[in-house]
TrEMBL record:
Residues 37-131 form the IrrE N-terminal-like domain. This is IrrE N-terminal-like domain-containing protein. Pfam families: Peptidase_M78.
Amino acid sequence: MALSKLEELEATYEQYATIIEFRGLKRDTGLYGAYKNIKGKPYIILEPDQPEIDKQVILREEFMHFLTSVGLIVNQKQLNNRKQELLARRLAYKSAISIDDLIKCYNLGLQTNYEIAAELELPEDFVLNAINYFKTQVSNGTVYKGYRVNLSNTITFTKVRSKERIAIN
């Protein structure tokens, strides 16, 4: 039997950090997920009372905190803490969705964020935020793997002739 996306992530991330579910995390902290280093050992803590699709993206973001964050960053009034939060979130977007994924959705005829989210098995608001992030990273008209990137309210693609192909990172 195939593993769910959440189970795949847990299997991968558990090699680096202990993942625990703590009922009441949201009630006690206002958070659905947290990363904490206790006596040099990394822990990712998740609120179990949430849909698996949401838990998956929270796990991604908390793992990105494990990779990038330094110190306690709960106080989001501090600029450095906000920067660390934003970095982890952006890395979570990139780990969950690639331009290749969006091209695949385009080729399947999927146009709305809802359709793309369903195909990628991600929450719709996460997909919207990821697309908005990608729009800041890719220039309108950039050609990637034979597709011109068109930026508007969303990202769309146009197949280009082979002589126009230029790769982007």
